[in-house]
Structures are given as structure tokens and as C-alpha cells.
Hints:
Belongs to the TACO1 family. YeeN subfamily. The chain is α+β, with helices and mostly antiparallel strands. The chain has helices at 2-16, 19-36, 45-56, 61-72, 103-115, 144-153, 177-186, 209-223; strands at 80-87, 93-100, 120-122, 131-139, 160-164, 167-172, 194-201, 228-233. The strands form two sheets. It has a four-stranded antiparallel β-sheet. The radius of gyration is 18 Å and the shape is globular.
Amino acid sequence: MGRKWNNIKEKKASKDKNTSRIYAKFGREIYVVAKQGDPDPELNQSLKFVLERAKTYNVPRSIIDRAIEKAKGGSEENYDELRYEGFGPNGSMLIVDTLTNNVNRTAAEVRAAFNKNNGNMGVSGSVAYMFDATAIIGFEGKTEDEAIEILMEADIDVRDLVDEDGVIIVYAEPDQFHAVQEAFNNAGITEFSVAELTMLAQSDVALPTESLEQFEKLIDALEDLEDVQQVYHNVEME
Length: 238
């Protein structure tokens, strides 16, 4: 599963170059989750998860607090969570998750991004069956054997655990996310290089150079859209 982590690193590196954009997307997500549940992360597991993800992207506390205060204030701004699926060049597949207050606008913008970048939209279910929802948690400071022992002591059986250049990467079921992170917290691990619920492709494709360049333009066009929160794909980015 090592190549999966490489794709996550590529995604994080891309987002790190666009901090204002990623901060805005987190602000929206935090607002929506806080409004849907309790604004206290200790009472709202979904909010707690988003805040843990935000920490790995160094989202400023001011943005987090502003979004939570907005939710507490009873803002009437509402968003729908929508997922789009589509295809890029040479058998590449994408899943696009959005938060939108204007469904028609978002659908048109996502479709246009596909059409202008050698891709095309698919129907619901045309791509998602080739991906698995997965929790990924990564950290430094422990060996692979030590990490396995920590999980065993917590009676947690995960999908996979690998050492990628000194970073321990754990792949687990989505509903194991908090249990896995808590186990490592209890073992003294408090900083995580990645803490994501993601969609991992069951198999990846390697694109020739020209197609890869086209695919990267498609990814950029989608991620530049204000309403797009996450883009998942099955392309090897190395």
C-alpha cells in the first residue's frame, strides 16, 4: 500500500502550496459539521475528526474559531454534501466531494472542469465501486514493530501498517479512526503527519507523460473550484 501514501503526500504537498484555498475549504467544512451537530468537538465526533485533519494542514486557530462561532450564531447559510464521479485520460478515475449552497452552479462547474480537461462526468456509482473508504494515520517516532505492539495492546486489528521512510502509515477501517489515533495518543504520539478519511483506489494506473500532464491539469481545475472539498483518484503520481 506504500504507493497510496505517496499519492496522499502528493495531495498534501499540492494543498500546502495553496494555503488560503485549503484554509477556506476547512473553514466551510468546520462550519457545516459544527452546525449539523454540537459545536463542542468533545461532543461531536465528526467535528473532532475535521479538527484533527485541520491540524495536519496547520489551519490557523482563528479560522477554526471563526467557523465554530458562525455555527453557534445560528447562521442560516446551508450547504449540501454532493459527490460527483468521472473519468480522466487513459482509464483514470476520479471522485469529487463538494459542499455547496448552489447545486446547479456546482454541477455545472464540475462538469465544465472535466470537459475542458480531457475528462467526462460519469453517473453515480460509475467509479466509486473501485474505491474503498479508508482511514489513514501517519506519524514518526516509533518503529514498525513498536507501532504494531501498540495496536495489539489496544486490541485493534487494522488493514495494513507500513514504514515509509521513517513515517509509520496505518491503513484502517473508517470507523476505527478515533480508536487508532487514541491508541497512539496513549503511547505518547500527539503529532500526526497525516490523519485522513479518504477514498483509496483498489488499483492504480500509471499514465504516460502527456496524459499525466493532462490529468494534473484536471485535478488542478477541480481543486480550484470553491465548492470542491476533496478529489480522490487512481493515478500514480510518482
